[in-house]
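Ops channel
N.P.: pipeline sanity check, posting one input/output pair.
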């Protein structure tokens, strides 16, 4: 059974509360004072009832001069009004102040999570569904925010009310107060048991919800593929499995937690009846009737805050589960900050010579992918990397970009180890065009400018012309100001690829990487890309991961990879002459064409 993760909660609450501590402390103090004043009401009313009862008895007994003491009752009413006005003022003030503090806190928390995302290694995202990460940023944060907004001051008010009520009970009658203090905690024993039993179910519910969000994000971003292969039924079945599991754990969590309120109410009802009988006997022993009324009312008042706490229990438990997930995310290991490395960096000082020296790498320690890998690329060369799927082509690029760190060996640019540079500095040497063209919901101009944010409009147009995409842009409604929709579905895959190439050209890198850049375009667009890339690659080192071997015939060096090793290297003609692995790979594609 999972225990409440107090350390994680403490850590996260410190992050949330400390920057706005006065925005939390002041409302809490106001709430405590307001709760104390509210708890005084039965006692103050009891004073008036006692005085009125004594007046009535004196009048009934025909005591000389006996009458209703309206002055005393008026003073009590004034005192009661003052207490309630102050209490309501503090209640509204505390709500106003803490609402601002909570909203600011969670704005900062979202920013912190967003900044955290940008410091995490690529391996983190490779091992998780994007939907589960999105769930942490949106759903989990909202669950905690709503719980704090609805529950924080209510819990403070309820706890203070319970403590103040017990103090007033003891003030009225020490024996009866002690008896009530012994009987009422029985309810907390039951509530603690139920909370511990249901807490792990709330965590399972949040995990199932995250899995559902991940499943939806993964499936329905490829909705056309689902329709194409008639996989609607299997997709619905997969969703139903997760949905049923969420239904089951959600039912268990909420049902178990919902037992708190009726159990508490039943126990307090029993205590209430017992205390009425006992205070009734106490009146015959000399207890003022107003004190009896106050004491009995305090019994019921104790239940009200306890009932509030139990009603808030499901929201609190969901928040605890979400806080655990957020804390785990915030504690994920980040890429090293590399503050010990020089920050001054001028890409223009680098020519683009690249060397791999005895590099070994494995995603899983027991399963090496790259083994004793070495080669050199001179500045300005076009290096093609070819091989079957899983040969390690993209892994080489991941290592070169420091998306992953090597196990041993070294990678150098112009004789300087990339591990002696800051990642940001090293990556500024590179431009990259991926197989999956990524564009975001903005204008065509802004999508190209993403390669260099300070580029002028003229430079954007110049990059588009080099990428052979300028004419296409001019034919679109709005031209460079046309908005690409969220799915990028209002332009073709080939056009997307041309725009990402323009983006890479605008960045003007020393080293250019093309990862299967032409695999998703037709022959005509491929020819346009090849012309554009010849211009773009001129004078800079280029790495091309090629799917179509016909596109890398002019490469200065072709690395043929298999199982993480270079099995052949040379030019296109020299490799064909060897009649080895490359020739078989080339001929197999040629025969398929």
């Amino acid at each position: 059974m999972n225990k409440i993760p107090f350390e994680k909660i403490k850590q996260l609450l410190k992050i949330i509360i400390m920057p706005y501590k006065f925005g939390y402390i002041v409302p809490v103090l106001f709430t405590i004072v307001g709760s104390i004043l509210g708890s005084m009401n039965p006692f103050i009313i009891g004073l008036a009832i006692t005085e009125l009862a004594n007046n009535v008895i004196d009048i009934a007994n025909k005591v000389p001069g006996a009458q209703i003491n309206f002055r005393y009752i008026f003073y009590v009413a004034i005192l009661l009004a003052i207490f309630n006005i102050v209490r309501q003022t503090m209640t509204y003030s505390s709500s106003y102040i803490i609402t601002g503090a909570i909203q600011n806190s969670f704005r900062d928390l979202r920013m912190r999570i967003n900044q955290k995302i940008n410091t995490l290694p690529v391996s983190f995202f490779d091992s998780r569904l994007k939907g589960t990460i999105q769930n942490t940023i949106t759903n989990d944060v909202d669950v905690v925010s709503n719980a704090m907004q609805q529950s924080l001051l209510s819990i403070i008010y309820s706890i203070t009310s319970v403590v103040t009520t017990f103090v007033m009970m003891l003030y009225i009658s020490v024996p009866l107060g002690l008896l009530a203090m012994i009987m009422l905690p029985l309810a907390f024993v039951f509530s603690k048991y139920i909370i511990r039993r249901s807490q792990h179910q709330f965590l399972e519910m949040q995990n199932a919800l995250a899995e559902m969000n991940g499943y939806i994000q993964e499936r329905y971003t490829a909705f056309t593929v689902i329709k194409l292969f008639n996989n609607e039924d299997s997709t619905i079945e997969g969703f139903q499995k997760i949905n049923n599991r969420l239904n089951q754990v959600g039912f268990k969590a909420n049902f178990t937690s919902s037992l708190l309120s009726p159990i508490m109410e039943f126990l307090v009802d029993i205590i209430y009846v017992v205390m009425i009988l006992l205070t009734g006997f106490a009146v015959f022993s000399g207890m003022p009737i107003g004190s009896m009324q106050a004491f009995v009312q305090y019994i019921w008042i104790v239940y009200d805050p306890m009932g509030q706490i139990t009603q808030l229990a499901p929201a609190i438990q969901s928040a605890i589960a979400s806080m655990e997930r957020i804390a785990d995310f915030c504690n994920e290991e980040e890429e090293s900050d590399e503050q010990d490395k020089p920050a001054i960096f001028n890409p223009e000082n680098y020519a683009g010579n690249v060397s791999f020296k005895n590099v070994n790498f494995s995603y899983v320690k027991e399963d090496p992918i790259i083994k004793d890998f070495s080669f050199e690329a001179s500045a300005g060369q076009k290096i093609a990397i070819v091989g079957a799927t899983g040969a390690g082509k993209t892994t080489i690029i991941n290592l070169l970009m420091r998306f992953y760190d090597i196990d041993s060996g070294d990678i150098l640019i112009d004789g300087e180890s990339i591990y002696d540079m800051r990642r940001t500095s090293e990556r500024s040497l590179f431009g990259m065009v991926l197989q999956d063209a990524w564009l975001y919901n903005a204008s065509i101009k802004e999508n190209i400018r993403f390669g260099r944010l300070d580029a002028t409009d003229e430079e954007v147009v110049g990059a588009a012309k080099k990428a052979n995409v300028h004419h296409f842009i001019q034919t679109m409604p709005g031209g460079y100001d046309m908005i690409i929709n969220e799915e990028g579905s209002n332009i073709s895959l080939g056009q997307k690829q041309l725009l990402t190439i323009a983006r890479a050209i605008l960045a003007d890198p020393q080293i250019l990487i093309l990862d299967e850049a032409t695999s998703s375009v037709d022959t005509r667009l491929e020819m346009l890309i090849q012309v554009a890339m010849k211009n773009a690659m001129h004078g800079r080192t280029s790495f091309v991961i090629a799917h179509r071997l016909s596109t890398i015939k002019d490469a200065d060096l072709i690395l043929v990879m298999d199982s993480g090793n270079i099995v052949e290297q040379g030019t296109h003609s020299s490799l064909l002459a060897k009649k080895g692995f490359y020739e078989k790979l080339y001929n197999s594609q040629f025969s398929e064409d």
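N.P.: looks fine end to end. The chain is about 65% helix and 10% strand.
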